[in-house]
Design goal:
The protein has about 150 residues and is α+β, with helices and mostly antiparallel strands. It contains two helices and eight strands; from the N terminus they run ββαββαββββ. The strands form two sheets. A six-stranded mixed β-sheet has the order 4-3-8-7-6-5, with helices on one face. It has a two-stranded antiparallel ribbon with strand order 1-2.
Amino acid sequence: MCILKFSAMLCIAFFIGSGIATDIHDKVIASSFVKQYYQTFDENRSHLAMLYRENSQLHFEGTVHTGREEISQKLKSLPFNKVQHTVSTVDAQPMITSQAVVLAVTGQLKADDDLPHYFSETFILLQENGSNSWVISNQIFRLYLHNH
């Protein structure tokens, strides 16, 4: 058994046995990360700060935020009190190095009393110093609002 730590507050256990294919490993990382990320976002998004580093970037609706502090401030300043994410799809792909995984997520989010809206989000996760800790290097978020 191996421990996958996303931060001091987010810690997920998963099994990696000898001979397990990289795509299964990436899917386990993706599934564990997505579950914990959105659960934490929905419950207390200020706890997500530990997932970012000083060179991390968040592209939020076309605006770029760089570094743990700026990203954390952006997430905390979002104009809603309650939010619930429902994830529809998660795709994971290894990057050139085995210490990085790209994730593509689609789903719906419901904020306060608004109707649910579709969203897509892409993450690049980096493994820190060969450890079992993973952090967000890059993130892109888009909300799909439709005028009827």
